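Quick one:
INPUT:
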């Protein structure tokens, strides 16, 4: 009898250990549902924002409620980016109200590592950049969220041909974790960014497509339409400057006043834009508008130098030909 009891107890212990090992080693199958109640009364904000959130690895979710650092002014939430397995949302399944913006698919279509991007309206001055624990995926699953101005990043439609350098000093009020720069007069043509130097203590960012998950896990940078932007995702910018190269239309040289919005505190700053002299040691060809304006102005000093040099060479050649003719005569 004692042996039978011991054998039974030993078998039960083995089964329990195997079950424990499966739980520990296997992937999590816990489904996170959006917290209830998620909907809230609508606010009256009029400034558009976008918010990015990525579900932690090892979980599933049917939706997310995001609470940015903001007062109860949020309204008119809409979906910008959803995981590919998620179905179309009903009009009432995505919205914003009070200080919450949410999306609820009702089925566990969001997998760990996938990003949801929502847009909403709120009061001016909502803190930008990464906000710790702002996204609630349900059942105790939370993650950080990143808040951006709604027009940065934008669709990559830039076609500007002129190469510029831009220096963006870090203003007082930091540290900041990124900056969004809106170039006035760029007419949707900003493109081809290259970060030349980051502020001290900030790492070198890598190029990322607009709306990509890298905006949450960064650091990254990009350019499109009228903007270029850099997000280090950590509050590292405290003094110094950002130096970035980009292409745009003619006529952007000068100081772009209050064109930079520094993420983390929505502090604005100026941007100084100059023509970039070369690309890899090769001079950048000006666009047609720049050439036309230079001709209308009578040419630059360099142009006049070429004209004088060419005329001098022609005079010397003509003189040499004339002297040769005289000797032969």
């Amino acid at each position: 009898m004692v042996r039978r009891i011991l054998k039974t107890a030993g078998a039960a212990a083995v089964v329990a250990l195997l079950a424990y090992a499966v739980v520990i080693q296997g992937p999590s199958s816990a489904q996170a549902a959006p917290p209830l109640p998620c909907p809230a009364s609508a606010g009256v904000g009029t400034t558009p924002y976008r918010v990015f959130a990525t579900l932690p690895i090892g979980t599933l979710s049917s939706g997310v409620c995001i609470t940015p650092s903001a007062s109860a002014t949020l309204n008119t939430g809409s979906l910008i980016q959803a995981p590919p397995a998620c179905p179309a949302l009903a009009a009432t399944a995505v919205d914003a109200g009070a200080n919450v913006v949410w999306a609820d698919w009702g089925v566990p279509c969001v997998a760990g590592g996938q990003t949801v991007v929502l847009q909403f309206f709120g009061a001016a001055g909502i803190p930008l950049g990464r906000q710790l624990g702002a996204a609630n995926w349900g059942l105790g699953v939370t993650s950080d969220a990143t808040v951006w101005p709604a027009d940065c990043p934008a669709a990559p439609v830039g076609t500007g041909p002129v190469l510029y350098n831009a220096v963006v000093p870090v203003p007082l009020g930091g540290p900041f974790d990124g900056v969004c720069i809106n170039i006035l007069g760029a007419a949707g043509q900003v493109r081809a960014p290259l970060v030349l130097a980051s502020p001290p203590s900030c790492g070198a960012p890598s190029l990322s497509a607009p709306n990509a998950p890298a905006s949450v896990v960064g650091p990254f940078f990009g350019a499109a339409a009228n903007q270029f932007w850099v997000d280090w995702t950590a509050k590292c910018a405290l003094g110094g400057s950002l130096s970035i190269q980009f292409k745009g239309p003619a006529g952007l040289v000068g100081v772009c006043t209050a064109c930079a919005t520094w993420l983390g505190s929505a502090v604005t700053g100026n941007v100084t834009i100059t023509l970039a002299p070369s690309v890899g040691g090769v001079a950048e060809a000006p666009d047609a508008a720049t050439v036309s304006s230079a001709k209308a102005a009578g040419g630059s000093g360099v142009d006049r130098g070429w004209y004088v040099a060419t005329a001098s060479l022609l005079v010397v050649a003509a003189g040499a030909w004339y002297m040769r003719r005289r000797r032969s005569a």
